[in-house]
Amino acid sequence: MGTDSFPNIPFSNEDRAYRGSYFAEVRKALFANPYQKVWGAPGGPPLPVEKTTLASVLRGVLPFARHYLFRQAVEREVDSKADMRWGTDGKGYRRLLHRNGICLVGSWQITEPTPYSGYFRQGSRALLIARYSTCCDETRRGYTRSLAMVGKLFPTTDPNHATPLETASFITQEDLGGEHSDYINDAELRNAPNTTFLRRGLGVPILALEGLLFGLVDRKPSIRQLYAVAELGKPADEPTRAPTFMRLPVAPEQPRIPGEALDFRDEIMAQIYDRGDPAPKRVLTFNIEVSDEGVTSGPAFRERRTITNWRHIGKIVFNEAVASYNGDHVTHFGHPTWRDDQNDPATATRVNERKVRFLPK
Predict the structure, then answer these.
(1) Which of 115, 216, 236, 309: CA 20 to 30 A from 94?
(2) Comparing C-alpha atoms, which of 92, 69, 79, 59 is closest to residue 11?
């Protein structure tokens, strides 16, 4: 199918039926159809680069926006907790944003004392599947792009856990308008990034639409709260205690991968593999840092967050990675809805796909 004819599946019975998933099945699906059978092998195809167009994010907006695909996609991202979205034809769905990515497999480890609950508590260990992507069409080093990493925690350390598990997602990104970090080592991935509209260039209208729709559907388009992780595995009668801010810097001991105009997917693969060899040789580690102290200033088109007193509490260690069709079209990472008090579920903006507290559909 052509790029703009690929189906964008709204919230469906597949999403409503979600009761958790098996880590082993999700991992297997990600590795089922890689773009390159062995990364970096001679004669292999190049990694695809899919484009996001203004026409694609405007489709269905006229005459009355009753079937506006972009709004349906935003609602789905907030409402659905599904880990995989296969669709009726088994081919997944079309992402309208962050179309080019690479999936990573590893573990989440909280090693330091914290005042938080759930999987932010010291000693917490979970299996983790993440997707590293860029919001823009540009994937290459040396160009303005906004790198992002979303992740889902499986509350187990057993990759063959016998029962399905509900997961918890987090979302981090560089400046929403774009950044100039050439190496993933230099990217500051935060759940509350800055926003510099004008860096997006010709993509400014798309960024504006994204902010407008996430604002209408979920109130706060530029910050993703962390309560999902703080509530994972928590007893129902224990209060939620989540950090306000989180950032995920690459660990300083990671090497810097050289290469002019290098695609970030190749850069990540090179952190773990040798070209032409399917066996992992190294790990890619990110530190987990949190803070509860920060202020936001400036208008939406140039929003700035000054965050202080970052504390290192743990690490993420990836030992596998793959760029694949299912990674780009089937895997799904839910966006936690905004809460006025992130530790109080009763203050949620959206309760489900039918009920909105602040703005009617």
Answers:
(1) 216
(2) 79
Scored b (16 or more CB within 10 A) or e, 325-341 reads: bbbbbbbbbbbbbbbee
Q: How many domains does the chain have?
A: 1
Task: Tell me the pLDDT tens digit for each residue of 114-144.
Answer: 999 999 999 999 999 999 999 878 899 999 9
Identify whether 35 is part of a domain.
Answer: yes
pLDDT of 197-232, one tens digit each?
778 776 676 666 666 666 666 777 789 999 999 999
- The angle, 0 to 180 degrees and rounded to 10, between the axes of the packed helices 69-79 and 204-218 is 50
Q: What is the pLDDT of residues 58-69, one digit of tens each?
A: 554 444 455 556
Compute the CA torsion angle 37, 40, 43, 45 (nearest 10 deg).
Answer: 60
CA-CA-CA-CA dihedral for 248, 250, 251, 253, to nearest 10: 180
The per-residue DSSP string of 60-97 comes to: T-SSS-TT-HHHHHHHHHHH---SB---TTSS----SS
SS3 of 272-304: HCCCCCCCCCCCEEEEEEEECEEEEECCCCEEE
Contact 172, 316 (CB under 8 A): no
Q: Is residue 353, in this structure, part of any structural domain at all?
A: no
pLDDT at 337 > cutoff 80: yes
Q: How far apart are the first and last CA of the chain?
A: 31
Q: For the chain, where are the alpha helices, taking DSSP H only? A: 13-16, 23-30, 54-58, 69-79, 204-218, 227-231, 264-272, 325-329
Which domain covers residue 238, as residue numbers?
A: 3-155+168-347
Q: In angstroms, how far apart are the furthest CA atoms of the chain? A: 57
Residue 160 domain-assigned?
A: no
- Determine the residue type at 294: G
Report residue 249: phi and psi, to 5°.
-75, 145
- Residue listed under structure tokens 């509860």: 292
242 in a structural domain: yes
Quote the CA–CA distance of 70 and 67 in Å, as a whole number: 9
> Which two structure tokens, joined as six digits, stand for 123?
């000693």
